[in-house]
Design a protein that fits this description.
The chain is α/β, with parallel strands linked by helices and 227 residues long. It is 33% helix and 28% strand. It is built from eight helices and nine strands. The strands form two sheets. The chain has a seven-stranded mixed beta sheet with strand order 3-2-1-4-5-9-8, sandwiched between helices. It has a two-stranded antiparallel sheet with strand order 6-7. β6 and β7 form a beta hairpin. The radius of gyration is 17 Å and the shape is globular.
């Protein structure tokens, strides 16, 4: 896992992940939020909230949200957003089970792959389950292309296996596709249009992701409920 010092250096510049105006992040957030926008959630938890971009989009659909991140700099920027029903604080995600609240919605977007050991991952899912209401919903977004660089990304099957120890998996929805994934004739035609009209390229890339099989995804959103 990256150290706190590493993350503080990373957040020396605002929006280091380049998510504020990113089509990719917007698509991922839209897919996450489609599962909550018609719900009646009272207390949500955003694990690894960063600068609070996803928390801000979540705010209209829940009564209140707790968001935490390891980086105090990121948490400071999240607080500066002035989200009325959100509470931000700095914490290591491995301490999530120390929280006293019990949440009916937990979001964990693109952070669990910082845990590189199977034992740590298994423990993390158990801790998340511990802080959830029996009728809660867990939304997990991860990269699933296998091992790259220092991050040991999830495989599709690994994500299912780990979740099923403490959760029932409702569905798995791709939110970005591999660049080498096979595409249908229709998808190839859409991408060709994107090459002709450059301004449409990113939108088309993500427009076609919903028809991609989960095992071919680059990023995947799992929806699960506690056992």
């Amino acid at each position: 896992m990256e150290t706190k010092e590493d993350l503080e250096k990373w957040y020396a510049t605002p929006d280091p992940w380049k998510t504020e105006n990113s089509v990719e992040d917007r698509v991922r957030s839209d897919i996450l939020l489609q599962y909550v926008r018609y719900g009646q959630f009272k207390h949500a938890l955003d694990i690894g909230c960063g600068e609070g971009a996803l928390t801000a989009r979540l705010a209209p659909f829940v009564e209140k949200t707790d968001g935490f991140d390891l980086s105090e700099t990121a948490v400071g920027r999240a607080k500066a957003r002035g989200i009325a029903n959100a509470n931000f604080f700095a914490m290591d995600m491995r301490d999530v089970d120390m929280l006293e609240s019990r949440y009916d919605l937990v979001l964990c977007s693109e952070v669990l792959y910082y845990l590189t050991e199977d034992a740590d991952r298994r423990a993390m899912f158990a801790k998340i389950r511990k802080v959830m209401q029996p009728t809660g919903v867990f939304l997990l977004s991860v990269i699933i292309v296998g091992q790259t660089d220092w991050r040991r990304y999830f495989t599709y099957e690994e994500g299912l296996s780990l979740l099923r120890e403490h959760f029932r998996v409702v569905t798995a929805m791709p939110n970005a596709v591999r660049r080498d994934a096979r595409t249908s004739t229709t998808e190839k035609a859409l991408r060709a249009i994107g090459r002709i009209i450059p301004s449409m390229q990113q939108n088309i890339r993500h427009y076609v992701t919903v028809s991609t099989p989960p095992e071919n995804a680059y990023q995947l959103t799992y929806v699960a409920i506690p056992r």
